[in-house]
Amino acid sequence: MPLLTLLPLGIAILVEKKIPGITFFRTSFYLPVIASAVVVALLWNLVLDDGGVVNNIAQSLKWVRGPIPFLTDRWLVVFSSISLTVWKGLGYYMVIYIAALGNVSKDLHEAAALDGAGAWRRFWSVTVPGVRGAMILVAIMICVSALRIFTEPYFLTNTTGGPGGYASSFVMIIQQYARGLLGNLGYASALSVVLFFVCLIPMLILARQNRKES
């Protein structure tokens, strides 16, 4: 979660600058957001498969002797699923940060620069406090999205959840219990209720934070 909270902020700061060609990079980062999650997951599957693009390049360059088991190793499949989720959501949260950065006064940056503050100091003392509300919003949205995620790990692991089900999300577990005529619908319903209340907690935190700021 910290990665997906801070990384879009860094990218937003970079693409916010008014330089030639920056629109192309903004579009490139946002493109995965508007792409179908199913298509993206299947594409990621092809890229990370034992005979996929990554393994072919790595083996052709003699970096590895055999294919890297991105989708068959229980830990690497979790890493692959996280990477896919980060890549898919990066552009969405970047847009939120771009909007928040527009509300940070440039006078504060100029004043800090005149006082001798470097770029790193201005980032922590001016930018981060200025986008604090957006950071809380993004963090909570990431929490809820992580709990509700289904499509990406489902299709990335060919509906299996990976070796031993290590990459199975909470929603995938619910779907597995509810699937078929002999599914345990009662247990699946109970898990759904638990998921609802767990997702409700960060939303209540966000609502309380908004009341404080208002």
From TrEMBL:
Its main location: membrane. It is a multi-pass membrane protein. The chain crosses the membrane at residues 27-47, 75-100, 130-147, 154-174, 186-207. CDD domains: TM_PBP2 (cd06261). InterPro entries: ABC_transporter_permease (IPR051393), MetI-like (IPR000515), MetI-like_sf (IPR035906). It is found in: Cell membrane. Gene3D superfamilies: MetI-like. Keywords: Cell membrane, Membrane, Sugar transport, Transmembrane, Transmembrane helix, Transport. Residues 1-206 form the ABC transmembrane type-1 domain. It holds the Pfam family BPD_transp_1. GO terms for biological process: transmembrane transport. GO terms for cellular component: plasma membrane. Belongs to the binding-protein-dependent transport system permease family. This is ABC-type sugar transport system, permease component. It comes from Renibacterium salmoninarum (strain ATCC 33209 / DSM 20767 / JCM 11484 / NBRC 15589 / NCIMB 2235). The lineage of its organism: Bacteria, Bacillati, Actinomycetota, Actinomycetes, Micrococcales.
